[in-house]
Amino acid sequence: MSGTNEGGLMDGWIRNHVDGRFVDPDDTHAFDDIDPATGQVVARVHEADRALVDRAVTAARRALHEGWAATPVRERTALLRRAADRIEERFDEFVAAEIADTGKPLVQARELDVPRAIANFRTFADVVAAAGQESFLTDLAGGRQALNYAVRKPLGVVAVIVPWNLPLLLLTWKVAPALACGNALVVKPSEETPATATLLAEVLAEVGLPPGVYNVVHGFGGGSAGEYVTSHPGIDGVTFTGSSATGSHVMATVAPRVRPVSFELGGKNAAIVFDDVDLDEALTGLTKSVFTNTGQVCLCTERVYVQRSVFADIADGLAERAKGLKLGNPLDEQTATGPLVSHKHREKVLSYFDLAEQAGAKVLTGGGIPRLGDDLAGGSWIEPTLWTGLTNRDRVVREEIFGPVAALIPFDTEAEAIALANDTDYGLAASVWTNDLRRGHRVAQAMNVGMAWVNTWFLRDLRSPFGGCGLSGIGREGGESSLHFYTEPTNVCVQL
Ligand code: NAD
What we know:
By secondary structure, this protein is an alpha/beta fold. It is 38% helix and 21% strand. α9 (279-291) links the parallel β14 and β15. The protein starts with 8 loop residues before the first strand and ends with a strand. Residues 161-165, 170, 188, 190-191, 220-222, 226-227, 230, 241-243, 246, 249-250, 264-267, 298, 400, 402, 428, 468, 473 line the site of nicotinamide-adenine-dinucleotide.
């Protein structure tokens, strides 16, 4: 294998990164990276074959045992802080790469995606540096005691599989704690968004991460790099963010070897709007929660339950705000909404537009493909869309669509709202909009989800647990929860 540790994105290629080197690309094993705003090819991506994935896993295992796992915590956390600083120095490159892959608006990439990646590295450096160990002093017969203490060791070689919607943010959410805990990684970014994981390989090499600790292999899922990584016998655990269907598949793949998994999966998240709410504040929050990132955030709201007396105000107000979202060139400072990630994904979202029509929905706004300028004509654009007239029995209200869409459904009582919101196979997030403090707490606690917000959405303290139940996932990451997944405890019991 040849290559250097620079130039992951060079000469129109996006390269694999194995054992501290970028691998020379091979055009017979490659696919196109498309800019979804224009439909134009931005780069060729070298698809890793099984042999290259094997080399990545072997390199990770060697790096783990040659010293990374035993590197003192203060050195690992110092490296994480240098990585954060280096991303800050190369900020514009990360922003540009993320926009080229996703078409997301400049404002979002600059204010959310890349800053959160930096925050992930700094937060997990702090969390790991401050982490203690469990210990128990046990009283024994005869006045003697035993001291129990748990030593936390790295999980080992961890497969990191991530989706395309918030590529760098979600990747670093896993990479930062995993590295801080002393693991070696084989990362498989989404085939739609390979660039920033590759740039991160450059950054980590620049700040002194030993070769083999962070490897990137590109490709698809089944029959490609995703499957080669998760089915590899050298993998000690899988941390996965993506759809529930793929999560189930990955679980079956690792089941014969009984490997731990951490799954952050899909959602069909509800908002509940009570009639005592500040309408303007609720509309601002709902607009964010339905339409951020063109609805392609696992936490986005696709079901809005509104108390009947304010139903018309919320429906009209939200439709008005949706119409005001500016679609357009992602690099334009005024652009609020980008395209969907691909034509394939747009086909999926459009199929739900058909289902809504068949179910007799009324379209409040949107429902089609927008007409934009010639330069954007080849992009996978879609109109922000709102429906009324649907019920919890309709597929549009039950299945994750993952687009800038929501169904608005009226309710009369608090109990009814809770029942409607919890009537789902998913369990990721919910938001409650009310000016009644007690009701806010009560209803939020009644939500069968991993994360419930009151009068806000998406607000996160990275030290708090993140994840979902039901079809939305297994386990939690964030703060100490991440440390639990990325380490294996050995309990030592000493009779005193
Ligand atoms: P996806 O499941 O299609 O793909 C996710 C990743 O898994 C990609 O890298 C893909 O190549 C890989 N993959 C696909 N099949 C695989 C296989 N058989 N073996 C191994 N890897 C495989 O999801 P997506 O379309 O990229 O992302 C959208 C989904 O992600 C939505 O369902 C969304 O809700 C979910 N998501 C969840 C969270 C969360 O934190 N809960 C966050 C973001 C996105």
